[in-house]
Input
Amino acid sequence: MVDGVIINADSMQIYDQLSILSARPTAEEMGDVEHRLYGYVDPSERYSVGRWLDDAVEAIKDVRAGGQCPILVGGTGLYFKALLEGLNMVPEVPDTIRTFWEGELDRLASPEALHAILAERDPAMAASLKPADGQRVLRALEILDATGKSLLEWQKSDALRQDPAIAAGAIRLALCPPRELVYEKIEKRFDQMVELGGIREAVHMTSLGLAPELPAMKAIGVSYLADFAEGRIGYDEAIALCKRDTRRYAKRQMTWIRNQMSDWPQFDSAEAAIAHFLIEMKK
Output
């Protein structure tokens, strides 16, 4: 047995009002095992990889200080990459600058319009972003105003936020079941989400009046299920679109694992991964 604490590495399971559609572990599933970094962020916040890195490092150090084993679980590959390889040292943005650009996005009511501003001030950075990606466009403008330098320059810097002690001795495991099995589980799991109240949760999320560009509002299921509830599309169409987007997301995750985690041991079942983990823990 391992005296461990589960630490979340999923970018949607952090939100406190998005438990069903993010498939956040229930109290029953957690059992008597401590879980951290789940459901603790308000969906109105623009939570970033950098903030997760800070939160995760703090949690890992705290768990280790208590003599327990931190076990990070989740499907956000960029989180693991930041934790193990470091993150570019981009300065914090003052609240005044962040508030200004968020206000501009609200005023213009169009991420494309904000992208046009970025294109005038920082053409190279604008060319690397999709005009509809409001959050990344915002980030680029904020960094430009706060530092006087393009985000591209910061991203190319060799300076990294990294704590080598965190990655030292880490046991890395990638769970990669056959694609057919993954798609089959997606079908069943999304049906379960709907039965558990996924439509109600989607309606609640849209009722908060949050900007659609916020990460929490991009959770799979929120827009289509809310559209169904408002009578804009039919039930079967909404469910089909949600499952389609989930399959596409799973495919991107598998591609990330192949390209970014090629040196990680990969397993086609949880049982095989756990067995390997227990063997490694004994070494």
